[in-house]
Amino acid sequence: MTIDEALEGVTHLFLDTAPVIYFVEQNPRYANLTERIFSSIDNGQVTAVTSPITLSECLVFPYRSNNTDLQADFFDLIVYGLHTQFVPIDQDIARQAAQLRAAHNLTLADALQIATALNRRCQAFLTNDKQLARVTGIRVLVLEELSR
User: Fold this and answer.
1) What would the mean pLDDT of 61-89 be, rounded to a whole number?
2) Can you give the CATH number for the domain in which 94 is found?
3) What is the pTM of this model?
4) Total count of domains within the chain
5) Residues of 52-87 as b/e, b for ≥16 C-beta within 10 angstroms?
């Protein structure tokens, strides 16, 4: 499936950790794909939705390497990005995450991510974790399976 086909009808796209890292760090394998997706966000066609989990996971390497520029890049994109909603995790999201864990045997982090996406009525969830495709109720877009 092409990116354009995957984003058809998507106004709110949840960003899981891997695609954000690939974009910020310009991963050569995924650069063309992530640039196209983030271009849709930058020009306002799509609103990105993120969570504290995305932020925390993206910041591990920059903190380990004491790379303050990379830390700032992730904060700027995930928390303060244009056309981006940074969503705190609350009791409603926690409840829905527990239901998702029970139904799909997800990790807590994955369940919280998907619950956040569902809570904000995202039409799609962008990840590179193929196992998340088993979740129903939201279109799971696996970066590895998309083409430009």
Assistant:
1) 97
2) 3.40.50.1010
3) 0.95
4) 1
5) ebbbebbbeebeeeeeeebbebbbebbeebeebebb
Taking the C-alpha atoms of residue 93 and residue 63, their distance in angstroms, rounded to an integer, is 27
- State the Cα–Cα distance between residues 120 and 128, nearest whole angstrom: 20
* 77-91 pLDDT per residue, tens: 999 999 999 999 999
pLDDT tens, residue by residue, 100-121: 999 999 999 999 999 999 999 9
User: C-alpha distances in angstroms, 82 versus 3, 33, 66, 90?
Assistant: 20, 19, 26, 23
Cα–Cα distances in angstroms (integers) from residue 23 to residues 19, 33, 39, 40, in the given order? 6, 9, 11, 13
Count the neighbouring beta carbons within 10 Å of the beta carbon of residue 97.
Answer: 23
Domain that holds residue 70: 3-145
